[in-house]
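Budget justification aside, the reviewers requested a transparent look at the raw inputs and outputs of the sequence design task funded under Objective 1. We therefore reproduce one unedited record. The lines immediately below are the structure tokens for a 299-residue chain.
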């Protein structure tokens, strides 16, 4: 009789049927020697299910402009901490989306317009505004050779616009997922401890080398020199003094690099069971938003 495990392995690309039938394929994938561990863990139910969002919600607002830094039109989505709350007097957390996403899509996919109002109303989190913005599908949130500069857009265009509307932008927070988790650390390097109150990187796209980055996404960096300029592991001292929280699933393809980051920087957060998806990210929003809100309120 063919076992459920063998059937699962037979459906995984990149693993030979003979190896799967003999059990060797499972062992190699489980130990991450062969590709496919994330798909295997998902098939075995290790990734969990996407939870329903909280009932609380707040109507979002959008700002659109032609970005000189990005050389394209961008949209910022403002998520208030409560229905009808204006930006005036509120601190800001910039939310950086992952590869292939946009500012509006990350709000929708992670239900940020539900989780923030719930955290404030029921979790005792000091209120702040969560603001997402379009950083491009695969810019990896750094200045690119073609002139696209998403971090410059945040610093020189988004934050001044929010300030003119009454938001407090002298000290901000940042949160990001995957490419955006990496981007949150890039933004921290740019602003430093004086302006960055706290940062959350959820499953950040961290790499061990330029070759590693290209294997993950050929458009992640323009060259080896571009990678070297933006290598987080080569600039860890620039993150010191900023409260950090970094979470990642143990079945996430970036888990090894995140574990290395934890060992070297000792941020809050943890590596726990889960994958690189909303089923891992949504359940951690409540403690992550609390981490940001309390640090922003501690002036």
């Amino acid at each position: 009789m063919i076992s459920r495990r063998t059937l699962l392995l037979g459906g995984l690309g990149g693993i030979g049927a003979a190896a799967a039938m003999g059990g060797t394929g499972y062992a190699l994938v489980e130990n991450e020697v062969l590709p496919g561990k994330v798909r295997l863990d998902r098939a075995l139910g290790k990734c969990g299910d996407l939870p329903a969002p909280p009932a609380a919600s707040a109507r979002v607002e959008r700002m659109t402009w032609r970005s000189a830094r990005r050389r394209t039109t961008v949209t910022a989505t403002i998520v208030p901490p409560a229905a009808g709350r204006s930006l005036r007097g509120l601190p800001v957390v910039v939310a950086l989306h992952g590869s292939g996403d946009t500012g509006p899509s990350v709000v929708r996919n992670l239900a940020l317009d539900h989780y923030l109002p719930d955290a404030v109303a029921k979790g005792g989190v000091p209120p702040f505004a969560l603001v997402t913005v379009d950083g491009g599908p695969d810019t990896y949130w750094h200045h690119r050779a073609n002139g696209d500069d998403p971090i410059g857009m945040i610093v020189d265009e988004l934050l001044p616009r929010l300030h003119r509307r009454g938001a407090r932008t002298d000290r901000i927070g940042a949160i990001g997922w995957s490419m955006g988790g990496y981007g949150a650390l890039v933004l921290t390097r740019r602003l430093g401890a004086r302006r960055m109150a706290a940062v959350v990187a959820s499953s950040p796209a961290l790499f061990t080398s330029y070759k590693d980055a290209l294997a993950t996404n050929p458009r992640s960096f323009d060259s080896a020199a571009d990678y070297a300029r933006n290598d987080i592991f080569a600039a860890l001292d620039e993150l010191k003094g900023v409260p950090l929280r970094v979470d990642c699933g143990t079945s996430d393809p970036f888990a090894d690099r995140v574990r290395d980051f934890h060992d070297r920087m000792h941020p809050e957060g943890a590596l726990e069971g889960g994958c690189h998806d909303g089923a891992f990210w949504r359940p951690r929003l409540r403690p992550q938003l609390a981490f940001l809100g309390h640090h922003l309120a501690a002036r």
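Strands lie at 61-67, 72-79, 91-96, 129-133, 168-177, 196-202, 244-249, 271-272. Confidence is low (pLDDT under 50) at residues 1-35. Computational costs for records of this kind are itemized in the attached budget.
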